[in-house]
Amino acid sequence: MSTSETGPAHKLLILPGDGIGKEVMREVRRVIDWFQRRRNIAFEVTEGLVGGSSIDAHGLPITDETMALAHAADAVLLGAVGGPKWDNLPFAIKPERGLLRLRKELELFANLRPAMCYAALADASSLKRELVEGLDIVIVRELTGGVYFGEPRGIETLPDGQRRGINTQVYTTDEIRRVARVAFELAKGRGNKVTSSEKANVMESGVLWREEVQRLHDEEFPEVELEHMYADNAAMQLVRRPKQFDVIVTDNLFGDILSDAAAMLTGSLGMLPSASLGAPRADGKRPALYEPVHGSAPDIAGQEIANPIATILSFAMALRWSFGLADEATRLEKAVEHVLSGGLRTADILQPGTAKVSTGVMGEAIVRALDKVTI
Ligand code: IPM
Ligand code: MG
Fold it and tell me: Which of 53, 111, 175, 353 has the fewest CB atoms inside 10 Å of its own CB, making it the most exposed?
């Protein structure tokens, strides 16, 4: 194969995190090695700790040093954080705070969560094949605002001794417009339809969300079809007739929930990548973090049965969105499809007539397929 490119190395920070994060990231390392060796693409890879593993080493879910590495990287690839060992820690130093700090300080306001159903996996969905086969939707979740970060927040004790828990749902015009803009731009290159989801029937922040999305649409994207849908209805429509959607844009909390529902439609949480993007910097690069949608799955960690595909496809998203290597991303996605149609499956996507393989064998098979696929 010919030399693919020259130029400065792509700076990638790898944060395996906890649980199966470590196992699946090892397979991504093999994929990265393949691109260095066979496509002559230079990556400068550094590795750091996040979540429980960082708490164990440093007493914090992420350190300032690791944050500095994240700021300096072209992209961050994260495995997963959390596990029962750290469940009872004070809120401010839980493993999840490491992830939330990365999202907030890198200003990764747009979280892209594609839910695609591979034909080879349509029977693994909890819905009927005809409802999900060929499904290809993207949820654009606002990631740095809303109830996740709103103030005031906390738990207070009232004069009568009761306690009161408080969180605040808050959005500004700019926060809504910048994430909606990502959704409209994305839709233009796909099915040209955006569904914006909120609870404008009960929340003022939802009313503002609806008005601002509509205004941006009318000003800048009149050619894109726009519909508004209450979040509860969107949840129902997702399991009723998911193929009606193209791009769904929604807030942080509704996006968290709707994206889990959408993920399950595809047959396996173990298959789905995600990208979290910030605004382009002066040099044109945008801060970015890529991670599988699945969590750290402590119940199966260390058993070599986790599916590495979501993390490998997250690296494919990094190739496309951060490194400007769309063809190489396609190559990797095709290699994954090739292995799936060949009948290899990790336990989570096992079907009658397919062969059950370990995390490592799945990774190896994808690397071998990279040698075969053409784009
Ligand atoms: C997700 C997760 C996180 C979230 C947790 C781990 C903080 O559920 O990325 O969807 O709620 O955003
Ligand atoms: Mg979630």
Answer: 353
